[in-house]
Design goal:
Length: 423
């Protein structure tokens, strides 16, 4: 494609007049899980129109070439817990390119537009769920926490002998449920507040079973959302429970839900959990899944893992300012970071003065220089990975190795970021 053709492109907001073209691109960009019947496509269009008109946290954008829509995406305004404080963050989702315009750098241009949009808004942290992690890694996005899937029979769940106050959540109690979710977000690094589309799916999916736990004042202090799944084609008697969401404000509530799941062993074959809690397997005397897979030497599979959410800092100095409340281990250290940008190949310098654990970005002097890529620094900043973890893999280099332990302690955070938001 020549330069003249590229200059004729424009990225702008979409509205209901673009829904037909939007749907065509969206369905063909992700065809394997779409129903291409007219009825299904019309239902999808209704959903898109509803989100456009009712969810202020979601904005639809498209790339036009000669007024023809050739690429689409949704941008999300999130509220995320970042080291104990709720801050604005952004998300990119549903990025799709028309099949006739693949390999023309349309996706790259859309991502760059997204980053500039939020950089200009003063929102330095972005997140996305990658279809191709390597594509986004080359654009400076770093990998977040892994998702773990456990498949366990109900009788492996711990016994619970406490008070059973579980019941199905009524529709007029959903406000209480959302307040419970907000309280959990407020104390969980990386979690995001629910946006309108998530709430709508919560209430509109007829297959959802929503069970709540209630405190002595009648408030919801935890809930589990699950659905039944057929576990073997042609045999309706084999059923699994797929846990879509498990939210709890204390460990007694967690144990209560596990006890509830244990009682389903007369009809349920497996309970399927998806969790970013890396210690989840300690709950079970036998955490082995149903695969029977063996890994030398003497290890048997307990769960499967998946890479998902990726993060990028669009403005590193602004990110430190936004998270100025974080205590970096009471550290007193001056660090010069040389951060190489994967796209431009430029090296950006930032000197951070850590004084009594607080980060300041106006320093001039430094004790140690660290060289790192934007993608890895983004993961480090959000505590998805440690300094020592990066160093042992050769992904961060120090000019004075005697500062390694101190720098590792500086960036240590007890909780990796978790993200259960589907966008």
């Amino acid at each position: 494609m020549n330069t003249e053709e590229i200059t004729m492109r424009e990225i702008r907001k979409l509205n209901e007049t673009h829904i037909d073209a939007y749907t065509d691109i969206a369905f063909n960009a992700y065809p394997s899980f779409k129903d291409f019947t007219e009825e299904a496509m019309n239902k999808y269009k209704e959903t898109v129109a509803y989100i456009m008109n009712n969810d202020s946290a979601v904005t639809f954008y498209g790339m036009f070439e000669d007024e023809k829509l050739i690429a689409v995406m949704r941008l999300f305004d999130f509220k995320m817990n970042c080291f104990g404080k709720i801050v604005p963050a952004s998300g990119l989702g549903f990025l799709g390119v028309h099949l006739m315009h693949k390999k023309e750098k349309a996706a790259k241009a859309m991502v760059e537009f997204y980053e500039k949009t939020y950089r200009d808004k003063g929102i330095p942290i972005g997140a996305l769920l990658p279809f191709r992690p390597d594509f986004y890694k080359k654009m400076g996005y770093g990998i977040g926490s892994k998702m773990n899937q456990y498949r366990l029979p109900p009788n492996r769940m711990p016994l619970y002998s406490g008070k059973n106050d579980l019941r199905y959540v009524a529709k007029n109690e959903f406000d209480m449920l959302l307040k419970c979710h907000e309280r959990v977000v407020a104390k969980t690094h990386g979690m995001m507040m629910k946006i309108g589309d998530e709430i709508r799916n919560l209430t509109s999916d007829p297959y959802n079973r929503i069970v709540g736990s209630y405190d002595e004042n009648g408030n919801i202090n935890g809930y589990i959302i699950y659905k039944f799944q057929n576990a073997k084609a042609g045999n309706y008697t084999v059923t699994n429970i797929y846990v879509k969401e498990l939210i709890y404000e204390n460990t007694d509530v967690l144990r209560k839900f596990l006890g509830f799941l244990r009682k389903q062993d007369d009809e349920i074959d497996l309970i399927i959990f998806n969790t970013e809690d890396e210690y989840f397997y300690y709950l079970f005397d036998n955490p082995l899944n149903d695969s029977l897979n063996y890994i030398p030497y003497g290890y048997i599979e307990s769960n499967t893992q998946a890479v998902g959410v990726m993060y990028k800092l669009f403005d590193i100095k602004k990110a430190f300012e936004q998270c100025s409340h974080r205590n970096y281990g009471n550290s007193n250290l001056n660090v010069r970071f040389l951060i190489s940008d994967e796209l431009s190949k430029n090296v950006n310098e930032i000197i951070v003065n850590f004084k009594d654990g607080k980060a300041h970005t106006n320093a001039k002097k430094y004790d140690v220089t660290a060289k790192i890529r934007t993608s890895d620094f983004s993961s480090l900043f959000l505590a998805s990975v440690s300094i020592m973890g990066l160093y042992n893999l050769g992904l961060i280099k120090l000019d004075k190795e005697e500062y390694l332990d101190e720098l590792d302690r500086t960036f240590y955070y007890a909780q990796k970021p978790v993200c259960y938001t589907d966008f």
